[in-house]
TrEMBL record:
The keyword Coiled coil applies. Keywords: Coiled coil. Residues 14-23 have a biased composition (Basic and acidic residues). Residues 1-39 are annotated as: Disordered. This is Centrosomal protein POC5. It comes from the Eukaryota. Residues 1-13 have a biased composition (Low complexity). Residues 57-121 form a coiled coil.
Amino acid sequence: STARSRLRSGALRAWRETSERRAGTKARRRAALETSERRSGRLAKAAALHAWRMRTLRGARRAQAEAEEQKALLAARVKQLEGALRVVALDAELNEAIDREEELEEQLAELQLRLEEEGGGGKGPDAAELRSQLDEAHLALAAAAWRRQLLEQVMPQLALGGETSGGVDSYVDFAGETRVERKSSGSLQYVPFSGISEADGSADILPAQAALAT
C-alpha cells in the first residue's frame, strides 16, 4: 500500500513536471512568436516610412527640376522678347536715321546751289556765311551717315537673336559721341566722332569700326 502510494505520487509529480515544462515551452514559443511579430511590424512600419520618404524626396526633386526648367524657359522667352523689342526700336531708329540723312542731303544740295548762285564766283557778301553753313551741313551729313551705317551693322545680328561680332548690345543717339554698350562686360564705351576726313571729305567712321571690332 505504501509502495503503491509512493509510486503514484512519483508518477504524478513526473507528470506535473512534464506538463509544466511543456507549458513553459509553449509560453516561450508564444512569447518568441509575439516578439517576432512585433519586430516584423516595426520593420514593416519602418519600410513603409522609408518608402514614403523616398517618394516624397523624388517628388520634391522632380518638382524642383520642373521649376528650374520652367525658369530657364521663362528666362529664354524674356530674352527673346527683349531682343525683339530691341530690333523694333533699332528698326525705328534706322528709319529715322535714313530720313535724317536724306533731309541733310537736300539741305546740303540747297546750300551748294545757293553758293554757286552767289555772285562774284562765290565771293559775294553772303558767301562766307554760306560756306560756313555748308561745312556744318557736311559735318551733320557725315554724322548722320555714320549713325545709319552703325545701325545697319548692328541690326542684322540682333534680328537673328544674337550679338554683333563685337558684342555690341545697344547704343544711344549721339551728339558728337556715340555710346556703345557691351554685353560681355556690361561696360559703356564712348566713341567720339572725328568729323570729316581732310583727304576726301568723307565721313571718318574708323572709331565706330574699331568699337565693333574690339
